[in-house]
Amino acid sequence: MLDDHVDILRLEKITKTFHIKPVFGSAKTVEALRNVNLSLKPGKALALVGESGSGKSTVGRMIVQHYEATSGRILFEGSDIADIADRASQMRYRQAVQMVFQDPFSSLNPAHTIRHHLQRALRLHQPDHAGEADVCRILDEVELDPNTTPDKYPHELSGGQRQRVNFARALAVNARLIVADEPTSMLDVSIRKSVLALMQRLKAERGLSILYITHDIATAEYLAEDTAVMFRGQVVEQGPTSDVVGAPKHSYTQLLRAAVPDPRQRLLAGDSGFSSHAKDVREASAHLVTGMIEQAPGHFTAQQ
Amino acid sequence: MKQNNTPLLQVKDLRVEYLTAGDPFAAVQDVSFDIHQNEVLGLAGESGCGKSTIAYALMRLHKPPALIRSGDIRFEGRSILTFDAERLRAWRWSEVSMVFQSAMNSLNPVMSILGQFSDMLKAHGKISRGEIIARTAEMLNMVGIPAERMHAYPHQLSGGMRQRVALALALTLRPKLIVMDEPTTALDVVVQREILQEVLRLREELGFSVLFITHDLALMAQISDRIGIMKGGEIVEIGTTEQIVTNPQHDYTRALWSAMPVLEQPKEAGANVR
């Protein structure tokens, strides 16, 4: 985390406050992110784990510039993305950083074929490589049939196949960083693993960096070298996945870890301590983080 | 778990077809299974394998173009396929209730929680306002929600709380069987665990059977007594949870298990996770 030169992405002291003015009721502010620091090395994957509402998607959306940070800096390959001024560098950044969304059913245009989706991305970012052969090559790379898929419409594909098209679209523009926001959570459990395997392969073969946003801590260890756990807008634990998921130190990570369904462990009616324990841990973890303690090299937990 | 020998629910050779422009599509093909008293039966399978169709058919909630072509569904020995509309209406919810898929969205958004309890209670007998409030408070307490939240509207509750309300609604009339169709799919793991723990505690207290439908085998193995594995409208394997987990017989069951991202055991295996 100390070496500036090697990080493809770096978040420094990011804070994000939303001001909500509902039609009825009084305006309020929501602190979505509080002093978040993250870093991602090229060709690696960082898993951002947390429950719904913990701020993990906000981080993803800030990276692709849907939201601006209230304070703090986001560095992409060493330069602050807030400083991007001219159109050409804006274009370069958008080409380098691509997002894959949670819902594979709504993130493709239902009125267009898969060929259109890929060619459009190719024409915008690589006008010289927008031919049929390139579409086939990219589809082949995400393990979709290059002969039949281009003429299909999104509704003719399954959820897993559609998610593959979304990754193909990111590959078409030669993205270097993919922000994958819950890419597997709307898929059947039985095909999640194959989509994870695709991401793993893209990372290993093409050297893609992946920010993998998920609420499923079980899938983090399939893909990510590093894991950061978020709760109520703060990072409560981060470090190598083998440490964070394998031997969690923070009580919230331990709670998340314990709640992952394990077929070898039967739930019993008498085991009602879980809820009260969960409530205590949530309350304790919501406090402001005052500092990070290094548990092992690179493995940090929040001090609250 | 069995209290007597007649199963609570017997499904025999059930066939449900969807009428299409061409040949009818059989979503459920000659499926048979029993649910005993106080038992949790799990039905697992991929999307589109017919598990939700079974759930709807059990309560005769299926709508055209779906129709039950053949087979029988017997509840405490009575064939529910012969019930007339009036009897069916009284039977539903008081003896068999359902927690729907994405139960958090199955509540009426323009009605307070109390209103939804009131609707349901009034539909099943004469009841005074005071009794409705007392009953609602009792049920909310039972699932761990403070009684004063009964005046809240669904959007004012979190996803987990809405799920608990849906569960409380399903339990109010003390049914003998609750059908749960992917009851926790939209929730994160901690909340999911809390709710399932609640279901098991209430089952101990009240004594009901559960048909638990999900595609998450690991979760199912944690709470079911027996598990049926479905594929393409058929049950390919049914057995005790222990057998399905440790000694699956059918290739498809084994394929489902190998496709699941399951965490390594950290406590026993130490730090060696990868």
UniProtKB/TrEMBL annotation, chain A:
Pfam families: ABC_tran (PF00005). It comes from the Bacteria. Keywords: ATP-binding, Nucleotide-binding, Transport. The keyword Ligase does not apply. Residues 9-257 form the ABC transporter domain. One of its GO terms (molecular function) is ATP binding. This is ATP-binding cassette domain-containing protein. PANTHER family: ABC TRANSPORTER, ATP-BINDING PROTEIN, TRANSPORT ATP-BINDING PROTEIN. It comes from Parasedimentitalea huanghaiensis. The keyword Cell cycle does not apply. InterPro entries: AAA+_ATPase, ABC_transp_ATP-bind, ABC_transporter-like_ATP-bd, ABC_transporter-like_CS, P-loop_NTPase. One of its GO terms (biological process) is transmembrane transport.
TrEMBL record, chain B:
It is a peripheral membrane protein. GO terms for cellular component: plasma membrane. InterPro entries: AAA+_ATPase, ABC_Ni/Peptide_Import, ABC_transporter-like_ATP-bd, ABC_transporter-like_CS, Oligopep_ABC_C, P-loop_NTPase. Keywords: ATP-binding, Cell inner membrane, Cell membrane, Membrane, Nucleotide-binding, Translocase, Transport. CDD domains: ABC_NikE_OppD_transporters (cd03257). Its main location: membrane. It is found in: Cell inner membrane. GO terms for molecular function: ATP binding; ATP hydrolysis activity. It holds the Pfam family oligo_HPY. The keyword Chloroplast does not apply. This is ATP-binding cassette domain-containing protein.
